[in-house]
Amino acid sequence: MSNKNADILLLLEGTYPYVRGGVSSWVHQIIEGLPHYNFELVFIGGAPEHYGEIQYTLPENVTKLHVHYLVENDTSEIKAKHGVKYKKELFDFWQQLQNYFRDCNEPIPTELLKFAFETLAKKDGINEADFLYSESSWQVLTNYYSTFCDESSFIDFFWSYRNLYKPLFKIAEIARGLPKVKLIHSISTGYAGILGSGASVISDTPFLLTEHGIYTKERKIDLIQASWIKESEQSLGKNLNTEMGFIRRMWISFFEQIGRTTYQEADKIISLYDGNRQRQIKDGAAPEKAFVVPNGIKTVRFIEALDQRPKQIPPVVGLIGRVVPIKDIKTFIRAIKEAQSILPEVEGWIIGPYEEDPQYYKECELLVGSLDLQNSVKFLGMQDITKILPQLGIVALTSISEAQPLVLLEAMAAGVPVLASDVGSCREIIEGGTDEDRALGKAGEVVPIASPSETAKQISNMLTNEQAWLEYQKSGLDRVQKFYDESHMFARYDKLYKDTIAWLE
Amino acid sequence: MIIIIVAAILGCICQYFALVEVLETPNWFLAILLHAIASILFAIVSYVFIPKKYKTTPYSSLLLMFLLLFTLPVLGIIGVVVALTFALCKPLKNDEIEIEEHKIPELPFEARAISANPTYSIGGLKAILKHASEPNKRLSAVMAARHMSDSQAIPILKLALKDLEDDIRLLAYSTLDGKETKLNEKISLYQQEIAVTTKQPKLSHLQKQLAELYWELSYLGLAQGALRKYVLEKAEALAEQSIEHVKTPATFIFLGRISLALDKYEIAHEYLLKATEFGMARRHVLPYKAEVAFCMNKFDDCKRYLKELPEQPKGSELRHLQEYWHE
C-alpha cells in the first residue's frame, strides 16, 4: 500500500476484501482496471468473529484499508449525567431524526442528516452513554413506545430500539474520521450507504452509489422471515393475519429510510440492469440520477479455457457460486436427480465457497444424502474457474435473486452454454437485451425459479442435442465479446468518476 | 441484651427511689429527676423492642416514648388515650415522599381487531395472487399463508413463486424452503437412528416414521415430477421393510396409499384388503378402495364402496362424492 492520498473512498459492507463473491470480484476488478485512481477502502462488518482473513491481494493502487465492526462488545463504563433536562435540546433533535426512521415516506432532510453526523457520538453532542443511560433519552424512548407501539411488550421494544439505533453512533464516528478524498463511492445502500451519505454531507464530497442487488429489498425479505423478532399475532391461533408486527415494521422502516436517504444524497446511482434501475426509482431514487452500467469480464482470460474444451460434451452441469440460500442450491440438486431419470450419467458440480452459511451447506448435504446423490453431486469448494470451465457441459444458475451474475458471462466466454432462472438480468444475458443483441441468438435457456422439473428438462435437452449446444456456444461467445467485455465497464466508470470529480471542481 | 437488662434494672431502681422520695418527705426536684432518668432508661428499652418499621426516625421515636413514660404519672390513662387517639386520627404529613398523580393517557391508536374467523379464504388468497395488481396486496396474501396449515399454504406459496415481483417470490420461496428444511432435518435424524438400531420392533417403528416423512414430501407437494416418484418409492420401500416385522393395519393402509400414488392399483387394492384382514374398520378403508376402483375404471365397484360407506357429514368432500355416485 502506498502513502499517497486516495482519490476514491470505497465503502464496503460485509464484502471485499474479507468475503468472496460476485460483488467482491467486481470491486477487485474495478480497482485493478482503473489503475490511474488511488482507492482507500472502508470495510464495515457485523461482529469481528464473522470474518476471517483477507481473501484478496490488495492491488497497489489501494492506499489504505480501514476496518470497522458495528457489533462490538462495549466495555465502556461511561455513564450519562442524570437529570430530565440534560441535553434536552439535542434530544429534541434526536426525536425528529427518529420520526424519519419510523415513518420512512420522506428521506431525512440533508440539514438534519448533517446535524446528526456532526452531533452523534460526540462528547458534547449525543454520545452513546447519553443514548443508553440519560433520562432525556429515556423520555424519548418511552414517548415513542406509548405513542406508536400498538402491540409489542415494552421489553421487546426497548431492546429493539437500542439495537436499531446504536450502530448510528458508530457510523457517525466513522464518518467524521474518514480521510479527505475526491469522491466517496458506496457499493450498497444500508449501513455503507448511510455512512457515505453522512460523510458526503459533512465533508461536502461527491457521493456515488453502485447497487449490485437491491439492499433494502433483501433486508426486507430477511426481516419478514426473521424468527428472532417476536410477534404477538402468532400466538393468536389460526387467524390469517396479513399484518406484520410492530417491531418487524420498525426494523424494515429503518432500512427503508437509510436506503431512501442514500438515494437522496447520492450524486449518481448506478445499477447493473434496467430492472433494478426501475426498482431504485420506485424506492425513491430520482430518475435523472439513476444510470445502468452493466458488469463486464476480461474475456481474454477465458481463451485458453475455450481452447481446452474436449470434443465431446461432458455430461457435467456446474453451478458456480457461494453455497447460500439465495443461490437455491437445493433446486439444482433436485434438478440433477430428475435429470438422471433421462440421462443417468449426468453429474452436478457445485463450485464455490461453503463457509458463509454452514447451516445451509449442511442442509444441502442432507438433501444430497436423502436423494442418494453422493456419487453424482459434488461440492468442490473454491476452484480456478478457467480450469474447471472446460470440464463442464453446462453452467447452471438456479438463484432466486440475482442482479447481473458474472459467472454466466465467464461461462459464455469459455464457450459453455448457460442455464439460469428467470431473475435479474439473466434473461437479458442469455437471450439478449436489445434487438441487435437478440439477433445473435440464445446462449442457453432460461427457466422459472425453484423449478427442478423444468431445469432438469432443459439440462437433458441441452446435453443431448449437440447441434443446439454448439449454437448456444457460438451465440454466447459473440454476445460476451461484443457487449460484456470489461473494457466497456471501465470506460463507463472512468467517465463517471471523472465527471463527478470535475463537477465538484 | 445485657445493656437492655442493666437499663431496665437501673430504671426500676430510679423509679423505686423516686416513689420513695414522693411518699416520705418529698424532695420534688430529686423525685422528678429520678423519674426522668427512669423514663429515659425505659424509653431506650422500649425503643429496642419496637418493630423496625417504626424506627425510621430514631430521635422522634425515642422522644415520643420518653414523653409518654414521663407524663404518665401526671396525665395518666386519660392522657395516653387522648394522645394516642389524636395521633392515630391526625398522622403527621410525611413531606419526603413525593407522589405525583397522572391521568391514564388516552391511547393514540385503536387496538387491532382480531377476528376468530380468517379474513381471507384459501381461494381468496389465490385470487389475490393471480389478479391483484398492487404488489403489496399480493405480498399480504403470502404473509397470510404463513399462518395456515402446510397443506393449505403450500399451493399458495407455489403460486407466489411465479410472481413477477422479486419480493413476493423471495418471501414465498424462503417460507417454502423453511417447511422443507424441517422435514429434511427430521429425515436425516431418522436415517441416523436407523443406522444404529438393530432391535425389533424399534427398527420397524423408525422405518415407518421415516417412510411417513418421505410421504409427507410428496403429499405436501414439496417433491414433484421424478423427485416425487423417488420419495414415494423410498416411502414404499421403508414401509415394506417395516411390515416385515410389525404388521399393523395402519401400515397396510399407508402402503395402499403409496401404491395408489405410484399408480400401482392392483397392489394398492391388495394392501387395502390386508388392512381390513388385520383389523382396520371398513369405513377407514372404503374411500381408498373406491379411489382404486375408480382409477382401474371399475365404476360399479367405486359406487358400491361409496354406498357401503356410512353417511358422511354434510359439506365434507366424501359426502359430495357419495352424493355424486348415488344412484
Describe the SSE topology.
The complex is a heterodimer of chains A (505) and B (327).
Chain A: E1 8-13, H1 22-33, E2 39-45, E3 62-69, H2 88-102, H3 110-119, H4 128-133, H5 135-148, H6 154-176, E4 183-186, H7 190-203, E5 207-211, H8 215-225, H9 246-265, E6 268-271, H10 274-282, E7 290-292, H11 303-307, E8 316-320, H12 329-340, E9 347-351, H13 358-370, E10 377-381, H14 385-388, E11 394-397, H15 406-413, E12 418-421, H16 426-431, H17 435-438, E13 444-447, H18 452-464, H19 466-483, H20 486-504
Parallel strand pairs in A: 1-2, 1-4, 2-3, 4-5, 5-6, 6-7, 8-9, 8-11, 9-10, 11-12, 12-13
Chain B: H1 2-23, H2 28-49, H3 58-89, H4 122-131, H5 135-145, H6 150-160, H7 166-195, H8 202-219, H9 226-245, H10 249-261, H11 265-277, H12 282-295, H13 299-308, H14 317-325
Helix pairs in contact in B: 1-2, 2-3, 4-5, 4-6, 5-7, 6-7, 7-8, 8-9, 9-10, 10-11, 10-12, 11-12, 12-13
InterPro entries (chain B): TPR-like_helical_dom_sf
Transmembrane segments (chain B): 29-50, 62-88
Protein name (chain B): Protein PelE
Rg measurement of chain A, Å: 25 Å
Number of domains of chain A: 2
Mean pLDDT of chain B equals: 83
Quaternary state of the chains? heterodimer
The number of distinct β-strands of chain A equals 13
Helix fraction of chain A by DSSP (H/I, runs of at least 4)? 40-55%
State the shape of chain B.
Answer: elongated
Q: How many helical stretches of chain A?
A: 20
Q: Helical proportion of chain B? A: over 70%
Low-confidence stretches of chain A: 234-241
Q: Rg of chain B from C-alpha positions?
A: 45 Å
